[in-house]
Specification:
mainly alpha, Rossmann fold, 2 domains, 5-stranded mixed β-sheet, 5 strands, 60% helix
């Protein structure tokens, strides 16, 4: 923090200041039982710096490439973003997302094309940019040690690694939340008009990136309202709150599109959140389903608790007994709690819980990736907790968390299990002949496979019989519920002079047994059916290919 910058009463940025005593109050008295914690020097310092560099290097390398083909969501992003801008906005109304990422990807595609690595590289850039921003955000919320801890935790986080290699907006979302932490803290230090405008701009960009960012902003707005009414820094809180609200001006042009999506699209592909959603989400942040996810989640929670652990008070430290001795020992390991810890808790827990509550009330689907906006303050909170420890304890906790995180991130980076689309496309490219027809049931299988097939292959989706490049989510459940698989099978069979190739998968919401009924009717109409590709259980997006030759 710059000299002269004021923080709320009792707040300290640095947890431990190397070589200096730790203070517990504005009077500068030394914390009871706390000894000086000099920074490591010499060879030990060199080893620690080398370890930091190695973790960051691995974090960078893991974010550079994914061997998997694009799955549905990624292919949908490309299908929308490759359109001319007026058509892009029309296509977004049929989707469920705000436009910022798609506009950026549109420009990116014009420059680099639509290859897998090309379209993913936008997220790669955002993911790499998140690393220095994590350091800056951590330093502002908890001092230099917290900055280093935040850099390590973000670099080794398997969730962040995964979405840095995905053609979706989640890496951009994580980056923008980190930027917001930095610009908001600068505005808190000195709430000049220019700094407050930056807060407004970043808040508006967040709202235009992913709708779940609104829940994070709502949580922090609630915190600012409380500070504006009762806090010692009321004028600053009011200005920050006004700046955040003013960011909504950037969202206003998209408001009609948002309202249309709210009425007609939603999230019909997923179940609403349930009682186990919170722990499942934390495990996803830690790398689930990889085996290190549980210990990583536990270590992150422990670090967050340390960040929030109340400072020692004379009455408690003077007490006797086993609990008091344990308390004194823990107090001896911890430095001063920073004022940022409660704010980060509000962002992480509040942003997640508000979003889950709204999704539950509206019966809207949820997937852990939607919570990316809450991940950033959660990792910063854990970093602040690490930084409160004396450096040896901090090094041990960081090493454990980072090592296990990388153990979970490496399989994520090298896995090709997002979709079976590449195998499906190779099979169809080799076997489909002129006069054949490829049918996708459900239509959600179409975008990932169709982008890999020659334009000469005739393809349609069930039940609309439209083109497969994009899924139209408008009134999706109602449309699928009224579809007639037997009638559509007759139309499909009549439209193909050659073989009908059915690419299908069971278990998709709103379809019931329609794809099975479609296959059975095609088999009856054509006299035979042959399964030429079975679903690969290792893939997230599995696909069966069945051939129905002409009579």
């Amino acid at each position: 923090m710059r000299a002269g910058a004021a923080r709320p009463v009792g707040c300290h940025v640095s947890s431990y200041t190397p070589g200096r005593r730790v203070v517990t109050s504005r009077t500068g008295t030394t914390a009871p039982g706390v000894q000086p914690d000099p920074a490591p020097t010499g060879r030990l310092r060199t080893v620690l710096v080398a370890g930091l560099g190695l973790v960051v290097l691995l974090g960078v390398l893991l974010r550079l490439h994914s061997p998997s083909a694009l799955w549905l969501d990624e292919a949908q992003s490309v299908g929308i973003s490759a359109l001319p801008v007026p058509q892009l906005f029309d296509a977004l109304r049929q989707d469920g997302s705000p436009p910022l990422y798609y506009l950026l990807l549109h420009v990116w595609i014009q420059a680099f094309g639509t290859g897998d690595d090309a379209v993913r590289s936008l997220s790669v850039v955002a993911g790499l940019a998140s690393l220095p921003l994590a350091y800056l955000a951590g330093r502002r919320t908890g001092g230099r040690r917290a900055g280093v801890a935040a850099l390590l935790l973000v670099a080794a986080n398997p969730f962040a690694v995964r979405y840095a290699t995905e053609t979706r907006m989640y890496a951009l979302l994580l980056l923008l939340v980190l930027v917001l932490v930095v610009v908001a803290d600068r505005a808190r230090e000195r709430p000049s008009p220019a700094r407050l405008v930056w807060v407004s701009v970043v808040c508006g960009l967040l709202a235009l990136t992913h709708y779940w960012a609104l829940f994070l902003l709502a949580a922090w707005s609630g915190w600012l309202v409380c500070r504006a009414v009762r806090g010692p820094d009321r004028p600053v809180a009011r200005r920050l709150l006004a700046a955040e609200v003013a960011g909504g001006v950037l969202f206003l042009p998209w408001l009609p599109g948002f309202l249309f999506q709210a009425r007609h699209t939603g999230t019909p592909w997923a179940e609403p959140p349930g009682p186990g959603t919170v722990p499942d989400t934390v495990l996803a942040w830690a790398g689930s389903p990889a085996w290190p996810a549980v210990p990583v989640a536990v270590l992150l929670v422990v670090a967050a608790v340390l960040a929030l652990w109340p400072p020692a008070r004379d009455g408690r430290t003077a007490a006797s007994g086993r609990v008091a001795r344990l308390r004194r020992r823990l107090d001896g390991l911890l430095g001063r709690r920073t004022c940022a810890a409660p704010v980060l808790l509000v962002g992480a827990a509040g942003g997640l819980l508000i979003g889950l509550a709204v999704s539950r009330v509206l019966h809207s689907g949820f997937a852990p990736r939607y919570s990316t906006a809450a991940l950033a303050p959660a990792l910063l909170l854990a970093a602040v907790g690490v930084a409160r420890l004396r450096w040896r304890a901090a090094a041990v906790l960081s090493a454990l968390t980072v090592t296990l995180g990388l153990a979970a991130a490496v399989p994520v980076a090298f896995s090709a299990d997002r979709t079976q689309a590449r195998a499906t496309a190779a099979l169809l490219s080799a076997r489909a002949q002129p006069g054949d027809l490829v049918v996708y049931c459900p239509d959600q299988l179409g975008p990932a496979v169709s982008r890999l097939l020659p334009a000469s292959v005739h393809q349609v989706v069930y039940p609309t019989l439209g083109a497969p490049q994009r899924v139209d989510w408008v009134d999706y459940a109602q449309r699928n519920g009224t579809a007639d698989p037997e009638a559509l099978a007759r139309r499909l069979s009549a439209a193909a002079d050659g073989t009908v190739w059915l690419v299908s998968a069971p278990g998709y919401r709103t379809f019931g047994d329609q794809c099975t009924e479609l296959a059975q009717t095609l088999a009856a109409l054509r006299g035979s059916a042959r399964t030429v590709q079975r679903p690969d259980p290792a893939d997230f997006e599995q696909q069966t290919v069945t051939a129905f030759p002409a009579r």
